[in-house]
Amino acid sequence: MSSKELLDMRKHNSRRFPLAAAVMFMPAMVAGIARAHVVLAEPDAAPGTRYVGHFKVSHGCSGSPTVALSIAIPPGVTDVAPEVPAGWRVSIVRQNGRIAAVTWEGGMVAADTPGVFAVAMTLPDREGALTFPATQTCEAGTEHWSEVGVDNSKRPAPTLRLATQAGVPSALEVSDGWFRMLPLSVPSGAYFTLRNTGTKAATLTGADSPACGMLMIHQSGNHAGTSAMMEMAAVAVQPGAQVRFAPGGYHLMCMNARPVLKLGARVPVTLHFRDAAPVTALFEVRDAAGE
Question: Which of 162, 175, 182, 238 is a good FRET partner for 102, with 20 to 30 A between their CA atoms?
Fold first, then answer.
């Protein structure tokens, strides 16, 4: 690994990464300034399916660390099963026999560090939007991410879009996928080439893998005159084009790596798209030099 990549990775752990507005990005475009601070890592899903929602907390409350997060579960969502991160505890609220809210507390996420809280659930068998109003409690202060249907909202609720996948482009190819093997305590990069052989643009909005607690789309490069990494809300691949995720550019950042991420292993990665069905491919785990 080059000294520049090591420096970028250290910056990743020590600075805040603005979350770009959820708009379509052309290749090589830089993300904009953050709008929402609690969002779903996978904002699209098919109706009636089993789904794991990763609620990402971008940062604390005006410099104060996060000590609790509550998520309201909308009607129609069933079989709710929250994951319990190490050092945290989970409580639930029931209404009319269903789980109506989930709360994590007892742990801490540093003010300048992103955190993730996962909930498995079965989605209602209908199209449309589901909102999950969130309350972020910090050592000093509370933020309510609960606004719905408000243009240019400053406090939008995490939202999941339900849409059938029939008739959408599926001509997406993933090749040469690999993870850079690093100690599990250090975020690892994942790289691949994404090609669109169809006739419509496809927009990558997220990824997940059993090898990672969370996978985030990042771009390394020169931002505001400094070398840094920024989180990307989406990356578009035009018809007949390809986007290469490689060191020094676009990549996936594996946070909270799990023991299955070991040298020589092949682990699945699922890419999620706004306007196409998910694509799953096996990524090889290579050494720090990519060999």
Answer: 162
Tens digit of pLDDT at every position of the chain (291 positions):
444 444 444 444 433 333 333 323 333 333 333 334 788 888 888 888 888 888 988 888 989 999 999 999 999 999 999 988 889 999 999 999 999 999 999 999 998 887 889 898 999 999 889 999 999 999 999 999 998 876 667 888 999 988 875 444 457 899 999 999 887 778 889 999 999 998 888 899 999 888 888 889 999 876 566 667 788 889 999 999 999 999 989 999 998 888 888 888 888 888 888 877 788 888 999 988 877
Amino acid found at 19: L
User: What are the tokens at 283?
Assistant: 């990524």
The Cα 38–Cα 133 span in angstroms is 9
Extract the tokens encoding 204.
């990558």
Q: Does domain 3-16+167-286 have CATH number 2.60.40.1890?
A: yes
Bridge partner residues of 255 (DSSP):
214
Could you name the CATH architecture of 47-161?
Answer: Sandwich (2.60)
Q: Shortest CA distance to 25 belongs to which of 238, 245, 256?
A: 238
Burial class from Cβ neighbours inside 10 Å (0-12, 13-18, 19+) for residue 185 reads exposed
